[in-house]
Amino acid sequence: MNIIKNSLPEGGFSIVEVSNVRKSYVLRSLEISVLSDINLKTERGKLLAIMSPPGSGKSTLVNLIDCLDRPAEGQALVRKRDLNRMPNQELTRLRGLEIDFVFQSFNLVPRLTALENVLLPTFANSRINIDSTKHATELLKVMGIHNHMHHRPGELSGRQFQRFSIVPHINDPVILLADEPTGNLDSRIGA
What is the largest CA-CA distance in the chain? Predict the structure, then answer.
């Protein structure tokens, strides 16, 4: 597994630390090791890319960072909080307010307008003193798709659809995880 780090302007405290992490799954009484002695550390304001062949554990590692899973052995810290020591409710809150995920598949709700899809994460986890609709509209303007915010996903082109699927990090997460989020975009919009 290759891990590439690039510096961005901000810097600061450690945001994710993974130390000697092991994770395996049991499939038909056979234990399959997915992660073995994985170590990484990244600070706020850093860009981290994880690249490796399919089946090498990238998704499992991302699931640990996204608080969807816990390590079997070792330690995973997100914002200095030990995932193995946090109750499920606290993990859910951390994930809802501080971590967001841009999926490779679009994951938009077909019955909702594009704007409603963007606002969806704010219904469960909104920040105090933020006008979510105004903030969503500003994000849509940045992506160049605010003229289509009242359209449903089936009324959007593939590129518009992809742009809307990138916007839902409306809660201004501290950690933004992505799985090939710009694969269907031209290089200008991808940047």
Answer: 54
